[in-house]
Amino acid sequence: MDNTKKYIKMCEKAEEIQKRDFENGDIIFYKNKWGMYFKEKFYEEMVFNDNTLIKYELNPIWLPRQDQLQEMISGKYENTHFFLVAFLKFADDFGYDGNNINCTLFTSMEQLWLAFVMKKKYSKKWLTNEEKWVII
């Protein structure tokens, strides 16, 4: 599971996917009290396993797992074949060779799948230098 600062930022800025209720097993990051003063240096991780978690002033950020990202997009395609071909074409555009990601834009499968979801569902792409999603 990717819990890098980059993936956290990508998820935080993907406001469309953050508009959901937490479910059991979700990975949530939030800035702790001290992190509020030190920008994004301090995050704490917790696994959501109780529906009593309230979205409070710490603004929790949901980090979707790869399987959750795949579920978000799979219904858009007629069958698994078209789904996988579309993803492989997308991955090929970013230098994924089947074993390693040979580019600096996305450094994990979660980042790559999130980028795929954002492109296909919301017509957005990630601008690394500006750390934001923009409409394409």
Provide structural commentary.
This protein has 136 residues and is α+β, with helices and mostly antiparallel strands. The chain has one domain (5-135). The chain contains 5 helices and 5 strands, in the order ααβββαααββ. The strands form 2 sheets. The chain has a 3-stranded antiparallel sheet with strand order 2-1-3, covered by helices on one side. Residues 36-42 have low confidence and may be disordered.
List the helices and strands and how they pair.
Layout: H1 5-13, H2 15-18, E1 26-31, E2 43-48, E3 61-63, H3 66-74, H4 80-93, H5 109-122, E4 124-127, E5 132-135
Antiparallel strand pairs: 1-2, 1-3, 4-5
Helix pairs in contact: 3-5
For the termini, the CA-CA separation is 28 Å
Tell me, briefly, the overall form: globular
Secondary-structure element order, N to C: HHEEEHHHEE
How large a portion of the residues is in β-strands, by DSSP E?
15-25%
By DSSP (H or I, 4+ residues per run), the number of helices equals 5
Number of E strands: 5
Strands of the widest sheet, in order across it, are 2-1-3
What's the average pLDDT?
79
Total number of domains: 1
- Quaternary state of this entry equals single chain
The helix content, as a percent range, equals: 25-40%
Q: In terms of structural class, how would the helical and strand content be classed?
A: alpha+beta
What radius of gyration results from the CA coordinates? 15 Å
Are there runs of 5+ residues with pLDDT below 50, and where?
Answer: 36-42
Please give the largest β-sheet: 3 strands, antiparallel
